[in-house]
C-alpha cells in the first residue's frame, strides 16, 4: 500500500472485493495498522449502495478503491476526491519479463454458459497480434452473484464464488479460434499464465496454449498474457519460465532488435 494511503489520521475505510481478492491477507492486520474496523465492500455495495461509502465523507476522510461512479457521486456532493495510486495487475504483470510498453489493448475473458458464448475479445486480440504486441487477458471473477431465478424472485441467495483459471481461459480461446477460423492464434501460440502475482506463492508459467491447458497454476487469482513479437531480452527472461525449452524456441516470435 502506498505511504499516502496511511497518512490520513482519521478515516472510514472500505476494502473493495468486487473485482479482486486480498491474496490471503487477513483483515485484522490492516485493521490493526489503521486502528479502524474495515468493512469489506463487495460488488453489491460498490455498485448499489455507494451512500454507505460516502456517508459522513464530507466531515471525515473516507478511503475506498477507485470506482468511477463513486468518484462522480462524491463530486456531485462536493466531496473532495484524491487518488492515491497503488499496485495493480496492469503494472505488476511486468514481472514475467515482457516489457510494459510492448503491450496493446487489455482483454477481458468472461465465463461462457450453455446459452451465452461471447467472443468479442477475439477481435481485440486480432488487432493486437496484427501489430505484434502482447495482450494481457483479465480473467472473469464471479463473487456474490445471483442465479436468474433468485434475482427474479428477489431472493438474496448467492452462488458460490468462481474464479476463472488460465486453463479455462485457454480452452475458451481455442474454442473461439476453432469457430472463427481466422488464424489469429493457435494451439502453438506462446502464452504466459500467472497466478497470485505479488503473493509469496505466485506462479509464472510460459508455454504454448496447448501446454498451458494442462499446467497447474494453483490458487486464484489468475492472469494470462498472449505474447506478441518479443525483444531477444524479453525472450531470454520468459524462457526461464518455459514448460519446455524446445517448444518455446520453436514457436516464440523473437526480434533481434
Task: Tell me about this structure.
The protein is α/β, with parallel strands linked by helices. Helix content is 31%, strand content 17%. It contains eleven helices and 13 strands. It has helices at residues 28-34, 43-48, 50-54, 68-76, 89-92, 121-130, 148-152, 166-180, 209-212, 232-239, 245-251; strands spanning 11-13, 15-16, 40-41, 61-63, 107-109, 135-139, 141-142, 162-163, 190-195, 203-208, 222-226, 230-231, 254-255. Strands 5-6-11-9-10 form a five-stranded mixed beta sheet. Strand 2, helix 1 (28-34) and strand 3 form a beta-alpha-beta unit. The longest helix is centred in the last third of the chain and has 15 residues, at 166-180.
Short description:
This protein has 11 helices and 13 strands.
SSE layout and pairing:
Blueprint: E1 11-13, E2 15-16, H1 28-34, E3 40-41, H2 43-48, H3 50-54, E4 61-63, H4 68-76, H5 89-92, E5 107-109, H6 121-130, E6 135-139, E7 141-142, H7 148-152, E8 162-163, H8 166-180, E9 190-195, E10 203-208, H9 209-212, E11 222-226, E12 230-231, H10 232-239, H11 245-251, E13 254-255
Parallel strand pairs: 1-4, 2-3, 5-6, 12-13
Antiparallel strand pairs: 6-11, 7-8, 9-10, 9-11
Key terms:
257 residues, alpha/beta, 5-stranded mixed beta sheet, two-stranded parallel ribbon, 13 strands, 31% helix, 17% strand
